[in-house]
Amino acid sequence: MSPGDIIRKVDGKPIGKFEDLSALLAEKKPGDQVSVQLERKNKDLDERVELINISTDKKVVKAGLGVSIGEVRKVEPAVEDQEVKFVDTRIGGPSAGLMFTLEIYNQLTPGDLSKGYRIAGTGTIDENGTVGEIGGVQFKIVAAERQHADIFFVPVNNYDIAKAKADQIGSKMKLVKVQTAQEALEYLQQLEPKA
């Protein structure tokens, strides 16, 4: 598989959204092989892919394709002048889901959610607002510390690894574990403005 490939089917079953792939691979184990039908540069391809362990927890085994999977969705604004635009930040991928969600909310509502704090975080986001775990959280903790973040939102399932890394590097960032985007919003809304 290559960057930009679009997965159409796995083992003959259509993949319409990210959850379809997760459900299909849930019963698989590392070393199993799956057939993948994909689209690359407008051409259909069939490949056999050996699954690998993609779990970030050493005690858990989770089979996956071994590539970062993103879901492409096009959202049309209901009100034309309320379209949200992002500066090209070279940030993307599923692990930016929570932070993109918070920024969209920030742009569409009055005031500034950050209240003067430097906010960082990570986590996938689904259509219900659930924040999912990501890989490499320890590296994101280091990067956020280097940028002098005050607060770091971390998915519940990544908290222990994030906390261990923050403690190891002597970070003073406040780590806030969240299961939903709503929890992150409520945390920010209750903050007193930074002095």
Describe what you observe in this structure.
The protein is α+β, with helices and mostly antiparallel strands and 195 residues long. The chain folds into 2 domains: 6-64, Pdz3 Domain, CATH 2.30.42.10; 80-190, Ribosomal Protein S5, domain 2 (2-Layer Sandwich). The protein is 26% helix and 23% strand. It has 5 helices and 11 strands; from the N terminus they run ββαββββαβββαβαβα. The protein has helices at residues 18-25, 97-108, 137-146, 159-168, 181-190, and strands at residues 6-10, 13-14, 33-40, 43-50, 52-53, 63-64, 119-121, 124-125, 131-132, 151-155, 174-178. The strands form 4 sheets. Strands 2-1-3-4 form a 4-stranded antiparallel β-sheet, covered by helices on one side. It has a 3-stranded parallel β-sheet with strand order 7-10-11, with helices on both faces. Strand 8 (124-125) and strand 9 (131-132) form a beta hairpin. The mean pLDDT is 84.
